[in-house]
Amino acid sequence: MVDSFEETMKFKVETDEEIVIKDIMKQVHESLQEKGYNPINQIVGYLLSGDPAYITSYNNARSLIRKIERDELLEELVKSYLGGI
């Protein structure tokens, strides 16, 4: 029988930065949806071009998303997407 105290356990806690990014993206997504836009298309347009005009100013969404550097946002999206692999 293997003693469970001999194995190293991994524990992952979301960082404050990850939580902030997730909260901002949820708010931006909701604002885009409420205004009738396709949130995924608009966010992809913003990420590819860097043009904040892809994000509505409704509910301060444009200002919120600009608080996150695009490279940081892309990094979090990739980590989230590949996290289950």
Can you tag this structure with a few keywords?
4 helices; 85 residues
List the helices and strands and how they pair.
Blueprint: H1 16-34, H2 39-49, H3 61-65, H4 70-82
Helix pairs in contact: 1-2
Mean pLDDT: 88
Give the beta-strand count.
0
Radius of gyration: 17 Å
Structure annotation, total helices: 4
Tertiary shape: elongated
Strand content: under 5%
Helix content, binned percent:
55-70%
> What ranges have pLDDT less than 50 throughout 5 or more consecutive residues?
none
Structural class: mainly alpha
Most strands sheet: none
Total individual domains: 1
First-last Cα distance: 30 Å
Q: Write the H/E string, N to C.
A: HHHH
What would your notes on this structure say?
This protein has helices at 16-34, 39-49, 61-65, 70-82. It has 85 residues and is mainly α. The chain has one domain (15-78). α1 packs across α2. The radius of gyration is 17 Å and the shape is elongated. The model has no long low-confidence stretch (mean pLDDT 88).
Short précis:
The protein has about 80 residues and is mostly helical. The protein has one domain.
